[in-house]
Amino acid sequence: MTSTYGDWLKQQRETAGLTQQELADAAVMTRSHISHIEAGRRIPSKEDARRLDRVLNTGNVLSSFLPAEDAAVADYFEAARLLEQQAVMIREFALSFVPGILQTERYARAVLGTSFPPVGEKECDRRLVTRLERAKILDDPVTPAVWALLDEAVLRRVVGSPDVMAEQLTHLVRLVESGRVRVHVVPYGAGAYQLLQGMLTLLWFEDQPPVAYSEGVQVGKLHDSPTVVTRLQSAYHLALSDALSLKESLAVLKAVAKEFGHDA
Predict the structure, then answer these.
(1) How many angstroms separate the CA atoms of 149 and 127, rounded?
(2) pLDDT tens digit string along 209-222?
(3) Contacts of 177 (CB under 8 A, 6+ apart)
């Protein structure tokens, strides 16, 4: 996204004599959200843009001239994708696939290839680019702090090919060994647990309450109710208590990668 939209918003805010925090309070948003929009890192939702127009007395300019969003993701994931880029801590639970921000290119392409009805190569490429762009949040050596809680099935189900799996698991090993990501594996021996109902992402921010995102087959939901978020956090922590330690999980990742043909 270009910064033209953000520059114009900043100009209108300053003309109105408002700080970012004052505009955020009046528009029922967060200061970091305003900051990201002004810097060209985020596109406001239509509702956010309407509130900004109302506070700044700009008619419907901000609502009508929202920049085009090039990201190719499912509609139900879009809000979570935007929040993911602002989070200072992300905790993922995966039941079937490695979480998107931790996927290698070949693994991501194999996952996207499971779509039905099938999508054309061009659309698959668009979705792949978006997924790989999401992973760039790991380029920062510190923020966000990322924990991944993986059911053992994620490691053992072949996605793409044994070679693709070996490469993906080796990538996880490197992330863990670098200290950038923590990975904990919930072994088959743990039996049934609450999170087996679907995937879960927990997000924490610098200046706004935490949220959660849950996803099942062709459906996803962003949760911001404090009661629901707390309940989902508790379910995550309960499953984490049954998971292998970081050291044990790393050993499992290496062992399974070796089974698939790589010495991690």
Answers:
(1) 24
(2) 899 999 877 677 88
(3) 250
Q: What is the pTM of this model?
A: 0.71
Could you tell me the strand order of the sheet in which 199-204 lies?
A: 181-186, 145-151, 89-94, 199-204, 211-216, 219-223
**Residue 226: both structure tokens together:** 């404090």
CA–CA gap between residue 128 and residue 255 (Å, rounded): 28
Q: Are 235 and 195 in contact (CB under 8 A)?
A: yes
Residues 6+ apart with CB under 8 A from 81: 71, 73, 134
196-250 pLDDT, tens digit per residue, is 988 999 999 987 889 999 987 767 788 888 999 999 999 999 999 999 999 999 9
Q: What is the dihedral of CA 20, 23, 28, 33, to 10 degrees?
A: -30
CB 32 within 8 A of CB 86: yes
Beta strands 211-216; 199-204: pairing state: antiparallel
Q: Answer yes or no: are the C-beta atoms of 48 and 82 closer than 8 Å.
A: no
- Whole-angstrom distance, CA of residue 64 vs CA of residue 85: 24
- Mean pLDDT value across the chain: 86
CA distances from 75 to 71, 80, 218 (A): 10, 10, 10
Residue in the structure block whose two tokens are 């499953």: 239
